[in-house]
Amino acid sequence: MNKIDTLPFLILTFILSFCTLSSSAQVYSGDSTQTLKAVSVRAYLQEQPLFRLTTSVGHIDSLQLNRHDQTSLLPSLNTVPGVRMEERSPGSFRLSIRGSLLRSPFGVRNVKVYYDEIPLTDAGGNTYLNLIDAASISEINVLKGPDGSLFGANSGGVVLLSPYGSGKHKDEVKASLTAGSYGLFQEQVDIRYQPDDRYRFSFNHAYVSADGYRENSAMSRHFLQTVHRYNYIPTNEIRLLGFYSNMHYLTPGGLNKEQYDEDPTSARKAAGPNPGAAEQKAGIYNKTLFGGIVHDAKISNRLSHVLSVFGTYTDFENPFITNYEFRIEKNYGFRTYFNFQNKQNQDLSWILSAGMEWQKNHASIKNYDNNGGVQGDEQSGDAFRSGQYFYFARFTADWKKRLYVELANSLNYYHYSFKGLYPQAEADFSKIDFQGEWMPRIALSYVLNKELSWRASAGRGYSPPTTAEVRPSDRIINTDLVAETGWNYETGLRWFNQWIQADAGIFYYKMEDGLVRQSRENGAEYFLNAGSVKQRGLELSVHSTLWEADQQRFLKAIQLGSSLTLSKFNFGDYVNDGNDYSGNKLTGVPSTIVVNTVYAKLPKKLSLNIQHTYTSTIPLNDANDVFADSFNLLQAKIDYTTRVSKVGLNLFFSADNILNEKYSLGNDINAYGGRYFNASPLVNFSFGAKIKI
To answer: Where is this region: Disordered (predicted)?
Structure first.
């Protein structure tokens, strides 16, 4: 298939965005309208206007989430420039911000994720984002670039998830069923209810299963989430929130180029002494219970306090090509901070915040022979402990609602310890301590005029090796790994008016001791510090409502959006095993990503959302001698919404990969034997119905 020339499409979208067809003073948002400058996000401990935020942020509300397929967060997150979510096979997700997946064979690393006021990222640095059902999230804010001054260790960015029921409350019951290609089936039930003025709660239940496009790629997940909110006095609230997820997915493994071209649906083949993925029933079994209590109190007109106490229990199994791994992980901790504000002066107001976060993780990791998906004899076992804590402080000043200045810093500590369980039992733990690391941040925004604001920031990134990197799947504990560190500098402009929202930013981040994934002959992975990495990028997004009419018109509303990500990421000084990769392109990062969206409200209560994504070639190894082809991904969703008596009814139909592209969304980087490719499905469909009471 010939590739679509995306440049004219991009230019056309931007031209249309600036050529407004209506003089409307409002922007369409679902069934209501709002001015763009009024949008606020909770990014730094309190609500702030998006227009004046000092950082580059991606804001995804519930309306945007609902425009996409609710089986995954992937299409919504990928509309944010600088953010890339990948799916190697159903259930196997990776999330990166500004190229941070270099060290992520699966899951999320060097990105900090929060669920309300609770860190979803554990003390060992791992985040099981794939456990969460997409419909259980009502809002996502992505803070791009290292931001540890308030959130601790990360070198890629921070993701803030708002679970269903944590925002504005409205009594409702929703239920949906979805079916689709490759055996897709999903059911979801959401309940939100307020029995009295002080107490409200929500429950979410979801089950999803799929056979998958490839051999050995089926998945299933049961998910239950609840949020309880109790205002024991009008200004103080206690929130009890958490989820239980039971997830299983098979891992087909990577294919080399010849295998990928011959039969992209096949699983990894047997090679030498190593059997294939299907023969070994390779996969992941993850049962996790996650939750905590948040106390949010306004002590006085000036002083407020937030305290969260949380814990996680994970039962993890991974039958792999060469072994069968069992892990039990226990994580617990707390986060607390005070906000003191002075808003008595009309021209100058300020806020002082201070607090700390502490986490501890205990893991028991045991490996056995894998006899065709059945546990065999013992191979090795280790007990692993990791802990991290940090203190943080932040001062902000707002002068005449024109100049906003932010000074923040945190002091971060990290350590881990381990001891062998077998074949040789060790009596004591060996401990590795990392010295305390400061993560300062200075930032400002300035309102140039009522439609244009400028921002600039400088901040330090820091991300120590995770448990899964110190003790990777090759089962060799590597105590030589050191933390990634670096300084990030960026600046940008926001142009908001009554009909358009445009955001442009450029950044430069020089990372030292970047961690890079490597793999051995049997497919087991290991990690090493690769030296410096130079990351330069441009991120641009434009969104506009071109038309909004009354109910009598044929076309009731049309919105256009475009985002552009340009990444010039290169290794600095990097020599591995005698090979000099200095100056090469950063592995796994495309240089260009373009996303275009069109949303239209049509007659007969129909709506249409179309999303086109262009991804350029991707270097698959550090040597830059193998690249994944560029590809165009076209997706669409049609909704029909009406009411039957007092029941709202929504019928929907989704199409994915409409152009029937052959592509790999989630390549295995630096794979031994050239097994880089994980084929994604060809054109596929889903349809379903949702009721709302």
So the answer is: 257-278
Question: What contacts 24+ positions apart, CB below 8 Å, involve 660-664?
Answer: 660/1, 661/1, 661/631, 661/632, 661/633, 662/1, 662/264, 662/631, 663/628, 663/629, 663/631, 663/633, 664/260, 664/628
The DSSP 8-state label assigned to residue 479 in this structure reads: T
At position 447, the amino acid (one-letter code) is V
Question: Residues in the chain with pLDDT < 70?
Answer: 1-38, 100-107, 522-523, 549-554
Do residues 43 and 160 touch, judged by C-beta distance below 8 A?
Answer: yes
Per-residue buried b or exposed e for 538-571, using 16+ beta carbons within 10 Å of the residue's own CB: bbbbbbbbbbbbeeeeeebbbbbbbbbbbbebbb
CB atoms within 10 A of CB 687: 15
State pTM to two decimals. Answer: 0.91
User: What type of residue sits at position 561?
Assistant: G
Q: Give the closest residue to 463 by CA, choosing from 396, 522, 388, 519.
A: 388
Distances (CA, A) of 104 to 69, 86, 91, 108: 25, 11, 15, 6
Q: How many Cα atoms sit within 13 Å of 417 on the Cβ side?
A: 9
Radius of gyration of the chain (CA): 25
Which amino acid, residue 458? A
- Residue 75, classed as helix, strand or coil, is helix
Residue 99, classed as helix, strand or coil, is coil
What b-and-e string marks burial along 142-180, b requiring 16 or more CB atoms within 10 Å of the CB?
bbbbbbbbbbbbbbbbbbbbbbbbbeeeeeeebebebeb
Angle at 328 between CA 323 and CA 330, to 5 degrees: 150
Q: Dump pLDDT digits (tens) for 210-238.
A: 999 999 999 999 999 999 999 999 999 99
Cβ-based neighbour number of residue 471 at 10 Å: 22
For residue 451, give the DSSP letter.
Answer: T
Name all domains of the chain by residue range, CATH numbers in brackets. Answer: 6-692 (2.40.170.20)
